Amino acid sequence: MRSSSILFALTACVAVLAGCGGGGSSGSVTPTTSATPTSVATTPAPPPATPTPTLAAYCGNYSLPATGVPLNLTDDSGLGAVLIVYVTNGTDFMDQNGNFTQATAYPIPAACFSNTQPSAASNKPLTIPNGVGGRIYLAYATPNPNPSVVPNPFGSASVSGPNVGYAANPFPWDKVEYNTSAGATIDTTQVDALGLPLELSVSGGALPSGGGSSCTANALPIVGVTSCNYGKIFTALAADPNYGSLVVAQNFNGKLIDMQVVAPKDSVAFTSFQWNLFGLAANLPVPTPSICPASPANGYITCVLSQYQTTPRLFQASNNIGVTGASGDSYCASSDGSANFIFTDVGSATSCTGATPNPNPPAGQVNPFKMPIAEFTYGVPPAADGGGACKQAILFSQPWGNANVGSGHIFATADAFALWKSVTADLNRGTMLSTSATHPVGVTNPSFGIFFQDPMYNTYAQVIHQYFDGNLAYALAYDDLGNFESGVIWNSPDSINVRINAVPTASAATGAPTPVAVPSPCAALPINVGTF
To answer: Residue 74 in contact with residue 21, Cβ under 8 Å?
Structure first.
């Protein structure tokens, strides 16, 4: 096993690997969500003049199989920096021979390969093996002061990537989730952060240079975000008093750039974002919605409980939202108006009007049962679900799964887990108050236009969806419920085509944030939901 910082013999400086070009075709997609900001504080940096690089001698040390899946890269970033690629299979990094043998970040200089635009290499494609899945990381490095070492901006980052946020990694980077098995989804992902204006396709070969600068979204089968629309995302979120702290603008290689927007689920340690936004009276929407009681002790969630106390909604305990073993029963969701959602199993009913409780609910589950709002705010999980420290930003993430179902876990039954996941999805998407027949709204062939209609929702997700090609973005863990992720389907002999569009310049640098404090004391989360 070879170290990721191997010394190679050089005949040219690493700096010649910097500054490439890229692009793609354009189409027209009309956003279906909120209005475009009236001004944009960020402007794309033009791509540098295409260099005529002399390949460094160490490029000869990379011998990837020509029979793999081509990874065609088009670099329009305009950063004048070295583009480094990392490929993982979920447990290890790919090495210089195309094998997954490296426990630490193994750097692959993009310009060493002939399917990078531009590159002086010939007949030497960058490929990924067939039948594997993981992540492709793209990161930029300034020329290493030691010309005998391959730049490695990830350094000691784990296979799950580096941390996000201000000063965590003062270089631009992002990732693509891939799978080279027939029928698999390949997507850009913004679940952790938005870090580069990436666009992706699997057909038609490399995305040509110059096609990703428009303020008009590209048409499918291209997914991702153009340079102009990437800048609009930063502008829109920076102007929001609640979500502006998620924006990171920093200097890189002599330029002040839009470097990253951190997703709310990862905001706890790295930003000053109020992760309990939905649970605090101080953060109620203005004007305060009429559905809210006079003193909503737990913020917007109390407002929703108030609505559900008088007007129950129909939910379904479905396996279609990534749950195993759910009954498929319908549930009428009401509330006690202050601290709990109340779910009543009504069997196969299609409406709460006139519905009666199912006499045969899932084994071990009472009917009705309570779901405390703490399951959507914060608390200390039970030992069976990790225990330890306070769990924050629960609403914005997807911290629980099928492994958290059973006696002694957060959820006693699969139905309770499915209903928790449904409420979380609807709160994020701004559809909790919808009068739709079944929640989460849009599980089956939903229209994107029905999302983000409530007084509060996940604005990070809303803004990113608004500006991404086709309104498709993997902005939160529930986007795949309705196929709203920025994904394409791969089948042999498709390639993986990625273009890094021009990275916009920023109007002002971000200051160091003061993260929101962990609650002290932080109460234990209620467990065995479904049995009380």
So the answer is: yes
* φ, ψ for residue 257, nearest 5 deg: -130, 160
Q: Provide the pLDDT for residue 30.
A: 33
Rg (CA), the chain: 24
Residue 521, preceding peptide bond in cis (omega within 30° of 0) = yes
8 Å CB contact between 70 and 139: no
Residue listed under structure tokens 């006079």? 294
Please give the Cα distance from 2 to 346 (Å, whole number). 60
Distance CA 231, CA 236 (A): 9
Helix (H) or strand (E) holding 93: strand 93-94
**C-alpha–C-alpha distance, residues 266 and 138, integer Å:** 20
Residue 39 confidence (pLDDT): 34
- Cα–Cα distances in Å, from 49 out to 23, 25, 56, 114, 115? 14, 21, 20, 19, 19
pLDDT, block means (10 residues), the chain with 532 residues: 31 33 32 35 48 57 94 97 96 97 96 92 94 97 77 93 90 97 97 97 96 93 97 97 96 95 94 96 93 93 97 94 94 97 97 96 97 97 94 94 96 98 96 92 78 96 97 92 92 97 95 92 96 98
The DSSP-derived string for 9-62 is: --SS-GGGGB--------------SSPPPS--S-EEPPPPPPP-PPPPGGGGG-
pLDDT score for 9: 28
Closest residue by Cα to residue 312 from 332, 328, 341: 332
The C-alpha torsion from 252 through 214 and 234 to 488, rounded to 10°, is -90
111 burial class (0-12, 13-18, 19+ CB within 10 angstroms)? buried
Which residues lie below 8 Å from residue 517, measured CB to CB, with a gap of 6+?
Answer: none
Which pTM was predicted?
0.89
In whole angstroms, what separates CA 167 from the centre of its chain? 20
Q: Is 287 exposed, middle or buried (0-12, 13-18, 19+ CB in 10 A)?
A: exposed
Q: What is the DSSP string of 275-294?
A: TTGGG-GGG--SSPPTTS-S
Cβ atoms 110, 84 nearer than 8 A: yes
Which residues does residue 178 pair with via DSSP β-bridges, in sequence order?
134
Calpha distance 159→91 (Å, rounded): 6
The whole-number pLDDT of residue 55 equals 53
Q: Which of 374, 300, 338 is nearest to 292 (CA)?
A: 300
**Residue at 234: amino acid letter:** F
Residue 117 to residue 507: CA distance in whole angstroms: 29
Domains and CATH numbers, the chain: 14-267+462-505 (2.60.110.10), 277-377+397-457 (no CATH)
Residue 185: strand pairing partners: 489
